[in-house]
């Protein structure tokens, strides 16, 4: 029977992907709060009429980033949060990519969508021995 315990190096790699993902979310959240026009120009997306919507999204991104950071501190103890990170990023990809399909005005959504997909894959690949046991 193969050893199912995760290798220490893979746990460090998983923690690193979670921390980088947290910073990624925090950067987007900060831009939404202090420089929404930069996001609009960078991704070519229309901003919602009321800043309230971006503020709520920024708060949720900040919370998600904090959860990923906590999970990175002890991935074995916070294993369920690693699953949340994998699934949440996959959901983020879908919720950004689906509106971008066939909508020329929303092609800027592909950049963060693919970012979420990349993080989902990275979290799963680096954590697979922890997650699938």
Number of strands: 0
Helix content: over 70%
Unreliable stretches covering 5 or more consecutive residues: none
How much strand content do the residues show?
under 5%
Major sheet size, sense and barrel closure: none
Instruction: Write down the overall mean pLDDT.
Output: 91
Give the overall silhouette: globular
Secondary-structure-based class equals mainly alpha
Report the end-to-end length measured between terminal Cα atoms: 12 Å
Compute the number of helices.
Answer: 5
**Integer tally of domains:** 1
Round the Cα radius of gyration to an integer and report it: 16 Å
Instruction: Spell out the helices and strands N to C.
Output: HHHHH
List the helices and strands and how they pair.
Elements: H1 8-34, H2 36-43, H3 51-73, H4 79-100, H5 110-131
Helix pairs in contact: 1-2, 1-3, 1-5, 3-4, 4-5
Brief characterization of the structure:
The protein has 133 residues and is mainly alpha-helical. It has five helices and no strands.
Give an overview of the whole structure.
The longest helix has 27 residues. The chain has one domain. Helix 3 runs antiparallel to helix 4. The radius of gyration is 16 Å and the shape is globular. The protein has 5 helices and no strands. It is 77% helix and 0% strand. The protein is mainly α. The model has no long low-confidence stretch (mean pLDDT 91).
